[in-house]
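A.,

Following up on our hallway conversation. Structure tokens first:
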């Protein structure tokens, strides 16, 4: 029996302890009545236990230390070590080759990009699902853009454009404050017939691609675009063509 695919992001979040008490209680209630989702969580627990019980340690082969010290004894490694004199001063028990190896490791650590806690599309979909399941679709419930737009003043450090696209078939429902990527973002809510569209808006990150893009994941569609200094992500389960048309209509209505 297949688990509820549309609930997979929140099931994973529940298993990892990432849901607040209200959302956790709602998902746990569903799990108690859904055998497939209960089995899915049990399978996750089984995998976790197998990994925890596995012996993954490897014994370094003889001569590895000598080979590493030979490699890091090159001029580049020595130069890197020279930039870190405090290492030798505070750790006098380290040999010259070991200092080079430590310096090379520190260089890699500084240069390595930080791993993302969760993939952004999954975060967006989880935010979309949370808004539908926790009865927290809007903080300000109105189709009047002159009410929705000023509501965000003082709650976020940017001003999102707000338009009602009722004539285009996408009526404005309202807005709310949400959190994506550990920072507050504006979420505008629109309807397409019986479907909900969450439009997440945040300041555009450096080097963000200005070209529109689409993502399909977990039965949901995401359309992304950048306009000015803002980053837009529309999430819904509507047809991709309808979501692409929403982007076009919103961009047209908010164009300078």
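Then the amino acids I'd put at each of the 256 positions:
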């Amino acid at each position: 029996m297949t688990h509820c695919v549309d609930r997979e992001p929140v099931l994973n979040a529940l298993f990892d302890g990432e849901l607040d008490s209200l959302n956790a209680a709602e998902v746990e209630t569903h799990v108690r009545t859904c055998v497939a989702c209960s089995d899915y969580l049990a399978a996750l627990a089984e995998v976790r236990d197998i990994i925890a019980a596995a012996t993954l340690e490897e014994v370094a082969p003889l001569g590895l230390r000598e080979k590493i010290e030979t490699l890091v004894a090159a001029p580049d490694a020595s130069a890197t070590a020279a930039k870190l004199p405090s290492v030798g001063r505070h750790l006098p028990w380290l040999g010259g080759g070991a200092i080079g190896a430590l310096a090379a490791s520190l260089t890699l650590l500084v240069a390595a990009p930080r791993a993302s806690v969760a993939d952004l599309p999954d975060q967006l979909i989880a935010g979309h699902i949370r808004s539908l399941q926790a009865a927290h679709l809007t903080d300000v419930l109105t189709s009047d853009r002159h009410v929705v737009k000023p509501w965000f003043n003082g709650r976020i450090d940017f001003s999102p454009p707000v338009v009602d696209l009722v004539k285009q078939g996408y009526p404005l429902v309202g807005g709310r404050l949400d959190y994506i990527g550990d920072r507050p973002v504006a979420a505008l809510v629109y309807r397409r017939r019986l479907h909900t569209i969450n439009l997440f808006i945040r300041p555009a990150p450096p080097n963000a691609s200005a070209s529109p893009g689409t993502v399909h994941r977990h039965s949901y569609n995401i359309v992304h675009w950048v306009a000015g200094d803002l980053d837009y992500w529309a999430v819904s389960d509507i047809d991709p063509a309808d979501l692409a048309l929403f982007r076009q209509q919103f961009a047209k209505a908010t164009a300078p």
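The longest helix spans residues 35-53. Curious whether your intuition agrees with the design.

B.
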